[in-house]
């Protein structure tokens, strides 16, 4: 094995992404159960039905279970991703920039939480910077793999990484535009435009995420 640390690190990063994907699905189910619980509570208040009350309790209990499971998976995914980046950086220095971005993302997320109850605009900016930091992590993981692929003369992985890199840059630009429109201009019209741009970026993010998983799988195979 030519790059044992990078091989181990990429495996950890790939596992982290799978866990994060499962956690996202559980979070979505949690949101659906939350809506169901609210609907059942409203139904109980209007009718006093025992069925509605039981449904509200069941939805609420299910929501808590899925929320806890999603939170645990997200935490494990974060730890795996961090360990993977640290290990990969031992064979390729490009991964160190991804590590710095991880640290920056933690700081921005903490500041967003601190300002959430004091200044919504500052909190929004910190949240946007946290999103940017997450994308920078992905960008430099890709660049690190591309550097390894170049050193191994694997053009297929290098070219695939370049395509994903450009898509992520597009997503990053769209999200920045959406947040700038909402935070600076405000108002319903700006919010509607910002939301439209954001939804487009979400659609591109889904495409990018699938491509990123495939890319990580190929990188694993390359480094095996």
List keywords for this structure.
224 residues, mainly alpha, 2 domains
How are the elements arranged and paired?
Blueprint: H1 4-47, H2 50-88, H3 94-115, H4 120-151, H5 155-185, H6 187-223
Structural class: mainly alpha
DSSP strand tally: 0
What integer value in Å does the Rg equal?
21 Å
Spatial separation of the terminal alpha carbons = 7 Å
Residue windows where pLDDT falls under 50 for at least 5 positions: none
Could you tell me the strand content as a percent range?
under 5%
The run of helices and strands is: HHHHHH
Largest sheet: none
Number of domains: 2
- Mean pLDDT comes to 81
Commentary on this structure:
Helices cover 92% and strands 0% of the residues. The protein folds into 2 domains: 1-73; 92-224. By secondary structure, it is an all-alpha fold. The longest helix is centred in the first third of the chain and has 44 residues, at 4-47. The relative contact order is 0.12. α1 (4-47) packs antiparallel against α2, α1 packs antiparallel against α6 and α3 packs antiparallel against α4. The mean pLDDT is 81.
Quick recap of the structure?
With 224 residues, this protein is mostly helical. The protein has helices spanning 4-47, 50-88, 94-115, 120-151, 155-185, 187-223.
């Amino acid at each position: 094995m030519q790059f044992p640390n990078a091989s181990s690190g990429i495996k950890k990063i790939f596992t982290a992404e799978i866990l994060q994907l499962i956690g996202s699905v559980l979070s979505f189910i949690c949101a659906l159960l939350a809506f169901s619980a609210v609907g059942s509570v409203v139904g109980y208040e209007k009718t006093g039905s025992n069925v509605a009350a039981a449904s509200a309790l069941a939805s609420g209990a299910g929501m808590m279970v899925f929320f806890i499971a999603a939170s645990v998976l997200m935490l494990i995914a974060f730890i795996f991703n961090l360990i993977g980046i640290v290990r990969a950086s031992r064979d390729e220095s490009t991964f160190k920039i991804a590590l710095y971005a991880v640290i920056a993302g933690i700081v921005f997320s903490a500041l967003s939480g601190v300002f959430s109850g004091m200044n919504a605009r500052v909190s929004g900016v910190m949240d946007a910077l946290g999103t940017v930091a997450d994308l920078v992590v992905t960008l430099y993981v890709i660049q690190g793999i591309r550097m390894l692929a170049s050193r191994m003369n694997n053009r297929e992985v290098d070219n695939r990484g370049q395509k994903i890199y450009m898509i992520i840059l597009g997503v990053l630009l769209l999200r920045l535009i959406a947040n700038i429109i909402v935070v600076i201009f405000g108002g319903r019209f700006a919010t509607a435009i910002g939301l439209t741009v954001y939804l487009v970026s979400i659609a591109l993010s889904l495409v990018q995420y699938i491509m990123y998983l495939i890319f990580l799988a190929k990188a694993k195979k390359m480094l095996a």
